[in-house]
């Protein structure tokens, strides 16, 4: 079959120089015409591989078909059958590793920009679609949802749609999980997350903030008060370097840095919450979190921002788009470079990061080639702020206060194929189960748990 | 919203607030803390739970006005509400393994040792209590401690009340005279460090409460980390209490100053009533 070549419609973005000076969104989104044109690039495969690439099997060709016909609301409804947060996923999913990687068009010219179209549909729905009334009768079954990240939001939404009375308990003063305290405004506008949360509230979900389960309320109390409990408390615990000098002032986890900026709005001029505005910033790690931290540092007026990563470009775990945007904005990369120690001034402020060069050896357990030291290659990077973005492990707060809950050696909650934990009535999903992963996986887990809970409660 | 039911001034720059937070009150234990925000733009700041009343649903905190947020609180009245109030956070104090205990409170640290003093008295092993302050006006809870302590020792830096000197002066004398198996010291970090120097020499186990800079208070940000015996610990979830002899004090003291320029700026703004 001959297919006419049609280049992929580029996502319009703000000028790198201009956008690196503020926190407004970088990608501007398609307009209707571009969205339709891009959707028309879909070949409508009979056996759509893109769907198998999507962790929640979004009905991609169907929604693209609807967009191509200009039926945006219909497209939204199609997406919503498996994914309730398209405006978020369109922005943050690693599409190049999922749906778009499988897209047959990729073999001819370029894969359909599924994420960009999804985002268009999601934004349209938030703006235009009337909230859907469920025809389900309210039942008297009550479900507690712990945390308010994507896994919890999805679980709550699915259960509310099935008629359950859902209460979400969030430790922070604001709901949204990593979507509000981790991922920056310039990549995921907080107003969008807020709209999603308002939608939940409008659907009758009660959202209780300032409540740390295991402290403010115990798991035992939740189990006694509710018919089922879903735990989506995320992977909160930052991994540090374990090298000399880590306790110096000016060495922070990406979690702390980003929380101060995103949740506490420390980027605003009059903010009461402080954040250290480094001049020469080093970010250690190369995932999405590292890219977010690096680009945030630029926006807080850093003169230089260097990402230090011990593997090579191919191995960087961040979304391609984030790496590309970071480079455009002026972030520098020291790849195949491992941090050795941090050096500080007399007043205990960090002044430099000592590194050594690496080369790639044999593949390790993760399938990525293992970095090996190059002897005698030590060098120093001058810095006044080091942001550590080496990942997170599950937060132990709940498991420590609730010993019956089975967890792995690393502290991840153990669940069966229905997302049920070792404790009757208690389900879990998201980063709390998988360790730091993705929004879409967390959402998928929340939805799956909701289905199991609904079945159990006869909803 | 969390209503402030009662405010009492205890010293020129210290007030006691009873806040309506029934879930926190119900689960609180001595040694734990809360994090609050005054208003929508507020910073998250931690305070020790000084007292709680499960029936009335109230939690009492003692707040010393030292910077922007605490000065802002200084302008609140009974009936006003705090935007956010979360807790109880951290681990409760555990002095169950000890019989002869000295509690030492320096300045606002008094807030932490008072619930301990009461609890130890209830358990039938009332402690000796040393309370130190810069001057007479800053001595708090004198009557309350008299009732709860086995023996109460007061000292002021300037000698304006009872005796002139530091808590460590009293401590040294006590350690010479009596046998203790535990010292629990809470106050400014330099004071806790000084106490640890004394007790290390005397070989008496010492527990301190670390007032590190915090954000979330749930072990998520790592900002409150302290080096304890060469290991990284989080004051908000592993603490706030630790074996004082194992703490890297110089690091902890310097970390507390991380944001001093910003704090000074905000303090000026608070002074102007912004
Ligand atoms: C900076 C950053 C950038 C990222 N970028 C991307 C990206 O581009 N694409 C992508 O797919 N993924 C990205 N991720 C990962 C993604 O955000 C997470 O995988 C996802 O948010 C996990 O969702 P969750 O529901 O498991 O939990 P979380 O989003 O972690 O939410 C957990 C919530 O539970 C609350 N909580 C914790 N303990 C308790 C308790 N005891 N009681 C009550 N509440 C509690 C927390 O406060 C939090 O709000 C990024 C993560 C970070 C940090
Ligand atoms: C576990 C714990 C228990 C505490 N208990 C009490 C108490 O019972 N009563 C009391 O008056 N104070 C207590 N503090 C200290 C109190 O939190 C700070 O005084 C308060 O945050 C100061 O805020 P500010 O805006 O008024 O002053 P700022 O000008 O911001 O700071 C003044 C000083 O307070 C410290 N500080 C600032 N921000 C924080 C923060 N987010 N977390 C911790 N310390 C900070 C800094 O060392 C700073 O030098 C406690 C701190 C901790 C960590
Ligand atoms: S306050 Fe964030 S980890 Fe302790």
Describe this structure in words.
The complex is a heterodimer of chains A (459) and B (274). Chain A is an alpha/beta fold and 459 residues long. Chain A has helices at residues 16-19, 32-40, 49-53, 60-68, 72-80, 86-92, 99-102, 114-128, 150-161, 178-181, 190-202, 219-225, 254-263, 288-299, 320-329, 397-401, 431-434, 439-457; strands at 142-146, 165-169, 206-208, 228-231, 237-238, 251-253, 280-284, 304-308, 332-334, 337-344, 350-363, 369-373, 379-382, 385-388, 392-393, 426-428. In chain A, helix 9 (150-161) links the parallel strand 1 and strand 2. The longest helix of chain A has 19 residues, at 439-457. Chain A folds into three domains: 16-128, Fumarate Reductase Iron-sulfur Protein, Chain B, domain 2; 142-236 and 393-457, FAD/NAD(P)-binding domain, CATH 3.50.50.60; 240-390, FAD/NAD(P)-binding domain (3-Layer(bba) Sandwich), CATH 3.50.50.60. A six-stranded mixed β-sheet of chain B has the order 11-10-9-12-13-16, sandwiched between helices. Chain B has a five-stranded antiparallel β-sheet with strand order 5-6-2-1-7. In chain B, helix 3 links the parallel strand 9 and strand 10 (128-133). In chain B, helix 5 runs parallel beside helix 6 (189-202). Chain B is globular. The two termini of chain B are 22 Å apart. The interface between A and B is large, with 37 and 40 residues. The structure holds flavin-adenine dinucleotide (2 copies) and FE2/S2 (inorganic) cluster.
Kindly list the characteristics that best describe this protein:
heterodimer, A: 459 residues, Fumarate Reductase Iron-sulfur Protein, Chain B, domain 2, FAD/NAD(P)-binding domain, 3 domains, 5-stranded parallel sheet, 18 helices, 16% strand, globular, B: 274 residues, alpha/beta, 6-stranded mixed sheet, 8 helices, 28% helix, binds FE2/S2 (inorganic) cluster
